[in-house]
Amino acid sequence: MKFKLLQIIILILISIYFNLSNSTITNYVPLIGRDLNCTEDIPRASLLTITNQAYAMNIKFETNDEVFNFTFSKYYLNNLVALGINESPIALINYNNFTNLINNLTTESQFGLNNTFNFINTVSKFSNLDNLKLTTILNSVTQMLTKIKSIQNITVAFDNNIKNINSPTKVVMDSYQLVSSSLNFINNRISNIITTLNSMKQNVIDFQNELDYYSMIGDDVDHMTTMNAIMKSFLNNGFMYYNYSVFFSRFIDLY
Q1: What would the pLDDT profile of 10-69 be if each residue is shown by its tens digit?
Q2: Predicted model pTM
Q3: Which of 5, 75, 90, 215 measures 20 to 30 Å from 66, CA to CA?
Q4: Which residues lie below 8 Å from residue 175, measured CB to CB, with a gap of 6+?
Q5: Cα dihedral sign for 35, 253, 101, 159?
């Protein structure tokens, strides 16, 4: 009796082993061949997901105009503070507002980039990905969207205030025109970040829907095909988020 029971247990274990062995659910391996360890790994891991490879190989994460504008905007605002009593009060307010905006963008971008490479590491583990992990990522992306939209509103309001300044002094108006140009660069980048984060958010929802579908259908081949397609889109969005955010994350190096 004990021998028969032992045979049954062995047969069950063998069956489980072969069922697991036949599973075709494997993890997604990024281009770099390993997990991402830092924000700089984001473009390295996702380079091949860019359809236009000529664009991808020659992409510039910042322009000379942007570097010039941001570097000298703060410098000129600081100079306006020292011009005299008529210009100093409002110049000091604008200088502080610009500095606070830069600090907020730097902090948020560094936070978002760190989140993104960790997101990629999590969703690429198809074999143990679950809705709890995806919900956590979805909430994080939503929070990133809320924060960057708030910063965009501040940027637009600040730019409107700058454009309403009227001074008879040419150097003052030239300085504020440069600042306004910088704020325009910021607003454009933020708009692209918002578009990208919305796409990332949809990727996470697509992952959730696919997990739910797989739990009902159980087709490994179809599941892997769909998961790989979503993963490539997620990597592409990660690349674009890096493209638009890394310049902001380096603001502290410019000043």
Answers
A1: 434 334 443 444 457 889 988 888 999 999 999 989 887 877 777 767 777 777 888 888
A2: 0.87
A3: 90
A4: 76, 77, 79, 80
A5: negative
